[in-house]
Amino acid sequence: RKYLAIPEEEIPEDRATSRERQHRLALQQKQQEVDEARKLAREGYPIGQIAAMMHHTCKTIQNYLNPSYRVTDGHYNARIPGKLAPYEKDVIELRSRGLTYPQIHKILCEKGYTGSVASLRMFMQKERSRMREQEEQDNPQSEFIQRKSLCQLIYKKLENVATITAGQYKQALETYPLLSPLYSLVKEFHTAIFSKKPEKLDTWIESAKKHDIPELQSFVEGILKDSTAIKNGIIFPYNNGLAEGSVNKIKVIKRIMYGRNSFDLLKAKVLFHELFYVEFN
Fold first, then answer.
1. 195-213: string of b/e by CB count within 10 Å (b at 16+)?
2. pTM over 0.85
3. Which of 48, 181, 242, 276 ranks highest by number of CB atoms within 10 Å?
């Protein structure tokens, strides 16, 4: 399901990473093994037989049967201090100055560091990942709206667009104030075209000229160049759809026959197609 289409009350709160999900799955599996071992022990099976049945060592089964045994490990996701631990702040500071890892390694060795250059690189890589995760936790999660959802609002009503809610639409208009007049102009243009009243087009052009939007002004200039034809299209019910359809049909036939036949055969096929259409329709 698309995230924006999920109702707010059904949005999952758990945003665990893949590593955390794998860890939780491993804990569930181990807990099942512990429960199975304790169940067999209550049924009277000896430790050796339980170990053979579960394919574990006797020591592992003894640990499972210990009442104080827990499947969780207190060391999970915990950092174990190494040789670099006393010099971590120095590494971050020197790296922020633009020093290379070999230069930083040389400075730290003078202070008593005995590790390798690779350890410095690995530390900085993990530190950058940790800082990005911290920034994501500190900053509020942004809610993204698909561009095609905003485009659909040009020719659809808000309630007919499933991928955007009224709250998201309102927030988008507050974030981008230019969207509101643009949507209004598009709807007014649609009304003017189908109103059968050409004077509404003049009113719309005057409204559009007030907005300093290069793309909109270019569109208005194109309308002014062909204003007579456009106004006739508003007044009269005629259009060039029939001619455009015939032109498209001829082009399709031409492309099918490209490189195979002469112009005379092309002409004959077009005329035969028209004759066939007249006789059977």
1. eeebebbeebbeebeeeee
2. no
3. 181
Is residue 160 within 8 A of residue 169, CB to CB? The reply is no
Considering only the C-alpha atoms of the chain, give the largest distance between any 2 of them, rounded to a whole number of Å.
Answer: 99
**pLDDT digits over 211-246, tens only?**
888 899 999 999 999 999 999 989 998 888 888 988
Encoded tokens for 224: 């002014």
**What are the φ and ψ backbone dihedral angles of 80, each rounded to 5 degrees?**
-100, 120
Domain ranges of the chain: 8-65, 85-138, 145-176, 178-239, 244-280
Q: Are 70 and 56 within 8 A, CB to CB? A: no
Q: What share of the chain is helix, strand, coil (3-state, %, to 5)?
A: 70, 0, 30
* Contact indicator for 201, 234 with CB cutoff of 8 Å: yes
CATH architecture of 8-65: Orthogonal Bundle (1.10)
What is the CB-side half-sphere exposure of residue 161 using CA atoms within 13 A? 22
**248 pLDDT above the threshold of 80:** yes
Run of H or E including 100: none
- C-alpha span between 183 and 215 (Å, rounded): 14
Q: Which amino acid is at 270?
A: V
In this structure, the number of other CB atoms found within 10 A of the CB of residue 119 comes to 16
Q: Please report the pLDDT score of residue 76 as a whole number.
A: 57
Helix axes 179-193, 199-209, angle to 10 degrees: 160
Q: What is the pLDDT of residues 41-63, one digit of tens each?
A: 999 999 999 999 999 999 999 99
The DSSP call for residue 239 is -
